[in-house]
């Protein structure tokens, strides 16, 4: 018989949302079923498990966590590249998941995405002019001459010479390719830009240039941004608020300065302690219980040095913290 699915915490009644957000995510979930040993489907993987947050106008909101924590899955659901298993997404107070067909094609220009790998996200057979002009041709149906002028403007906006428009992606460095990807993403003048690990595949020497470019574009175009990363030092530089994900659950959400100065969740503290030169003391993990040992309780209980029976038996909900953030930890007030 299939094993029962892990218990998921109920969302807090006063979920961590803003008064008038641009984007509102409520109890968002994505589950991938796994084949059973006999027939039917066994309990699957909860890639995203009841996540709620909001992004304000002209705000940069960061999502951080280890690989496999669900960060990119959330970004792709917001961009409508994959469908969620449950939950709600509202964009400018409109039901984003209710859109389909022509209405979705018309509205999705308002939310665009910069992908992690500039090597995989650009078609090697296309010229740069075709790559950047694709959304203009698909959504705006601009005439060829107007598209050429617009492509030249976009290349200049990301720091590239318009003369490179006739070249192919293989003729560019990784940083230059990511600039091309950014030019494509802003071509339709979106209101929300989703940046999915946009510098993780780049040399360290180039990362700062791309981050500065994203900052400049956000300020100049008055965008909101969802910035997805596993690197907290990058998030500290770029983001106004940060949500920390662990095994598909949001375990802490706070303004960036508050999160770095006084992290409330043990997992957040572990992430900060892992930053080279942070000077933070690493808390020793329990010697026995492996990660994920308590799926019916807190997902971090198997690695948490502060875990007790309550943590292993009941999943904590994300609740307001006196310091001004939100934390999903039964013992946050004690430790």
UniProtKB/TrEMBL annotation:
Instruction: Report the SUPFAM superfamilies cross-referenced here.
Output: P-loop containing nucleoside triphosphate hydrolases (SSF52540)
- What GO molecular functions are on record for this protein? ATP binding
Query: What InterPro entries would the database entry show?
Result: AAA+_ATPase, ABC_transp_ATP-bind, ABC_transporter-like_ATP-bd, ABC_transporter-like_CS, Oligopep_ABC_C, P-loop_NTPase
Q: Which organism is it from?
A: Inquilinus ginsengisoli
Where would I find the ABC transporter domain in this sequence? 23-272
Membrane topology, as annotated, equals: Peripheral membrane protein
Family per record: Belongs to the ABC transporter superfamily.
State the UniProt keywords alphabetically: ATP-binding, Nucleotide-binding, Transport
What lineage is on file? Bacteria, Pseudomonadati, Pseudomonadota, Alphaproteobacteria, Rhodospirillales
NCBIfam families per record: oligo_HPY (TIGR01727)
What superkingdom heads the lineage? Answer: Bacteria
> Localized where?
Cell inner membrane
Main localization (coarse): membrane
Pfam family membership, one:
oligo_HPY
**Protein name, entry field:** Oligopeptide/dipeptide ABC transporter ATP-binding protein
Question: CDD domains per the record?
Answer: ABC_NikE_OppD_transporters (cd03257)
């Amino acid at each position: 018989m299939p094993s029962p699915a892990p218990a998921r915490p109920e969302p807090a009644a006063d979920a961590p949302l803003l008064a008038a957000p641009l984007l509102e995510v409520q109890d968002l979930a994505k589950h991938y079923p796994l084949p059973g040993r006999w027939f039917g489907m066994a309990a699957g993987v909860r890639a995203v498990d009841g996540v709620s947050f909001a992004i304000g106008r002209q705000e940069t909101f960061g999502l951080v966590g280890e690989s496999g924590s669900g960060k990119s899955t959330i970004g792709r659901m917001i961009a409508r590249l994959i469908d969620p298993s449950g939950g709600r997404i509202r964009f400018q107070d409109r039901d984003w998941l209710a859109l389909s067909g022509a209405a979705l094609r018309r509205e999705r220009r308002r939310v665009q995405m910069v992908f992690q790998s500039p090597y995989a996200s650009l078609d090697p057979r296309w010229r740069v002019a075709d790559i950047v002009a694709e959304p203009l041709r698909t959504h705006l149906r601009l005439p060829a001459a107007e598209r050429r002028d617009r492509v030249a403007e976009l290349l200049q906006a990301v720091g590239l010479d318009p003369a490179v428009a006739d070249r192919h992606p293989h003729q560019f460095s990784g940083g230059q390719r990511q600039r091309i990807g950014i030019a494509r993403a802003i071509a339709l003048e979106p209101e929300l830009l989703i940046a999915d690990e946009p510098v993780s595949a780049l040399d360290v020497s180039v990362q700062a240039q791309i981050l500065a470019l994203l900052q400049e574009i956000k300020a100049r175009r008055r965008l909101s941004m969802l910035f997805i990363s596993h690197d907290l030092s990058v998030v500290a530089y770029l983001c106004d608020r940060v949500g920390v994900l662990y095994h598909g659950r949001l375990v802490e959400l706070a303004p960036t300065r508050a999160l770095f100065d006084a992290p409330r969740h043990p997992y957040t503290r572990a992430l900060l302690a892992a930053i080279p030169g942070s000077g933070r003391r690493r808390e020793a993990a329990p010697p026995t219980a492996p990660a994920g040992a308590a799926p019916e309780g807190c997902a971090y209980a198997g690695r948490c040095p502060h875990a007790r029976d309550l943590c292993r038996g009941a999943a904590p909900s994300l609740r307001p913290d006196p310091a001004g953030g939100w934390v999903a930890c039964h013992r946050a007030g004690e430790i």
